[in-house]
Amino acid sequence: MELAQIVERLKKNEVVAYPTEAVFGLGCNPNSKSAVEKLLILKQRPVEKGLILVAHKLDLLLPFIDESRLKQSHWQLLTQQYDCPTTWVVPAKLSVPKFITGQFDSVAVRLCTHPAVAQLCEQTGFALTSTSANLSGLPPCKTAQQVRSQFGEFFPVLDMAVGNAVNPSEIRDIFSRQIFRRG
User: Fold this and answer.
1) Which residues form the YrdC-like domain?
2) Is 14 helix (H, G, I), strand (E, B) or coil?
3) Planar angle of CA 160, 162, 168, nearest 5 degrees
4) Which of 13, 34, 102, 170 has the fewest CB atoms lying closer than 10 Å?
C-alpha cells in the first residue's frame, strides 16, 4: 500500500505493518485502546508485556514519559544516535494506560531513524506502537511480501524496504543501562 493509505488506516485506529530499521513492525495509534486491543489479538501478545512506542522526534514520545524523573544524562542517552537501534525503558506518566505499559510503571520508547516511521508519524501526528511483524513462532518479517504471507494478502503493509540494521532494536533500561534484549 501507499503511504497515504497506511496513514488513513492508522487514523481509523487500524493495525498496519511498516518497515523499521531491521524488520517490519506492526503498529497502531497508541492512544486508541481499540487499536491496541486489535494489535494484541493479532499478535497473540499478552497485554502484561507492554509495547514499544516509536517516533521520529521526541515531541511525540513526551506524552508518555515522566519527564520529572529524568536527568540531563538520561535525555542524552535517549536522543543519541547509536550503531544499532536502541529502545529505552523510561518512567511512564501515570496517565499512560496499562494497555501500553503492561504490568510495568515504565514505557519502552525509541527514536526511529527510518524514513517510513518519520513519514507516518509526521502525517498522523502521533507515535506508533511497534512490535515485530510475525506470528507466534515465526521469524520477524523483513519484506512486505513476508508480511502478506503471514498476515494475509490484504493486510495493510507499507511497501518500503527495512533499514540496514541486522537485528531488531536493543532494549535497555535508562537508569541502570541493563540490556533486556541485545540488538
Assistant:
1) 1-183
2) coil
3) 150
4) 34
